[in-house]
Design brief:
Layout: H1 20-27, E1 31-35, H2 42-49, E2 56-58, H3 62-69, E3 78-82, H4 90-101, E4 106-110, H5 113-118, E5 129-133, H6 148-155, H7 159-164, H8 167-189, H9 195-201
Parallel strand pairs: 1-4, 1-5, 2-3, 3-4
Length: 204
């Protein structure tokens, strides 16, 4: 019989992510690209800054993808694009938007590790954006309480396993994350045949 998964730690999220003030300030000047590892909280951070939910356009959602391809973008002064780097012409798309609307629109872009790499693939966006990297939770971001460090060491610093408070869930999440990292990120960036060797290199 499986033992109940009882949380071992009472944890709480930060009031807001540490990067929020910088993102807000930078959006007044240029586009902002938020990079960082998968599931670190980039999309959640971006959504916390939106004036309205319909400002978001996720390229993985069919209706949003069609809106991007047809340039049928939401009204208002804020556009949030998630995973738009999966669109082959994304650099020129964003360049055109910024050149035409940059003075009256705030443009925020998030994506996976591929965004961090692909943004270096050309100079069409040069001078038009700030790139910021979001990191997992830290002791300082979580308030520096005495029980914060033990919880981080036991659960990890990514939001989902940490906020679960459960060591069992955190272990399962870490195994799944490692598998997704190999098959969905590394393989998409590089031709790798020896998955076993890559997986072994990621063991703690």
């Amino acid at each position: 019989m499986t033992e109940p998964d009882i949380p071992a730690f009472a944890v709480a999220p930060p009031t807001r992510r540490y990067l929020c003030p910088t993102v807000q300030a930078d959006l007044a000047r240029k586009m902002v690209f938020i990079g960082g590892p998968r599931q670190v909280g980039k999309t959640s951070l971006a959504r916390s800054l939106l004036p309205r939910p319909d400002c978001e356009l996720n390229y993985d959602i069919a209706a949003h993808r069609q809106a991007i391809l047809k340039h049928e973008l939401p009204a208002g002064d804020f556009w949030f694009f998630d995973e738009v780097h999966k669109f082959r012409g994304w650099r020129n798309f964003l360049k055109g938007l910024f050149d035409e609307h940059g003075k009256e629109k705030r443009i925020l872009v998030t994506g996976s590790a591929r965004l961090d790499l692909y943004r270096h693939g050309g100079d069409s966006l040069q001078g038009r954006y700030f790139h910021l990297r979001l990191h997992p939770f830290s002791v300082a971001e979580l308030g520096g309480h005495a029980d914060t460090l033990p919880a981080l060491l036991a659960l990890g610093s990514f939001p989902e396993p940490f906020l679960s408070g459960s060591k069992r869930f955190a272990r399962r999440w870490t195994l799944g994350y490692r598998e997704r990292l190999i098959r969905e990120e590394i393989i998409s960036l590089e031709s790798i045949s020896d998955l076993g060797r890559v997986s072994g290199s990621l063991r703690p």
